[in-house]
Fold this sequence. Notes:
Number of domains: 3
Radius of gyration: 24 Å
Strand order of the largest sheet: 12-21-20-19-13-14-17-18
Helix content: 25-40%
Number of helices: 13
CATH superfamily of the largest domain: putative lor/sdh protein like domains
Amino acid sequence: MSSETVELRGHIIDSLILPKVLDEILTRGAEFTIAEIRIGQNRVDQSYARIDVSSASNDALGDLLLRLRQHGAEVVERKEVQLAPAPADGVFPEDFYVTTNQQTFAQIGGKELAVESPMMDSAIVVNRDGRTARSVKFYEVRKGDDVVVGQQGIRVQAAERETSHTSVFNFNNQISSETPKTAIIRELAGEFQRIRKEHGQILVVAGPAVVHTGAGAYLESLITHGYVQRLFTGNGLAVYDVESALYGTSLGVNLEHGALSDAGHVNHMRAINRIREAGGIAEAVEQKILTRGIMHACVRQGVDIVLSGSIRDEGPIPGVTTDAVEAQRIMREKVRDVALVLMMGSMLHSIAVLNMVPATVKIVCVDIDPRVVNRLTSYQPFQAVGLVTDVKPFLRELTENIEASAGANGAAVA
């Protein structure tokens, strides 16, 4: 039998970290002995556990320790990380350490360094001169870069529940279509206001459903009143929003009456042509071609817009990044300081963003499909709220709560 001793620190009881670790050990056919445990006596006290772990072989133990580290377990004996040079541009060395989106630390030169920009499915490159470590994707690594291999010298700090106050994000809520949502949305409105007051950054990841459902006016209101700093979407939402602003339709459907327009798909193509003729969305706003809508509000409020294309796009309109790797690079740069991500009706864009943000970022997912909500909220154990509902009633109630709260406090919404 091979054995190691691991330690757990923090809110390991109420964040369910300790039971997850013990379950992981038993599931892998290993054994454990709790050598020491100290449980905090009140909500803010941290707990501590020292656990002796035994497995049938060194390989099995190594695999188990990797999984335990992802829950925040630390091997008692601290060692330096092991490094190997990248054999070629875009290629990691064998046995490279695969990252999670949890805060990660690397033992380098006798010091523990926080890995910059923790994200899913990346490697860690170490700059020995500058004593820094950062997460990198395949396309970022260059031949000769020092890449962490194996598990030695790595510590992962798992996300925990907030203890300073009861938060709507603490319980990984997945609110079904049959559950009353008013209280949850009211709490979310308060969170939006708190982040805005603290000058935090809110990112909206949205799909065309925002326009199709007639919810565009509510998102436009959030943008106008300063509750959105970044917008990630595709060519589709931008084009349908422009079509709505210019012709009152979305893919040929009249948004006011809900009936097919005689123009049908023609309006969609004419909207693309108008923006291409103007030179882009910002140019169309400046030329007063575009005088309302989500894109208009983003330009007027200085919101960072990242439009990424797909093989389905007509046009696309100017400003859409059609290179997927380049779009990913741009998105990664713009999520670094985000405090909250609101995801609505865009599963693929949302999954991409979840792979980029650390586990400390708060996630709000709104979709009519419960499978999408479940998939997107399962990434963040204590920082995600999912609501199974149409986008329009959610955004309407969110904006109404923000306006009511601002009015009750005697302040203007803006």
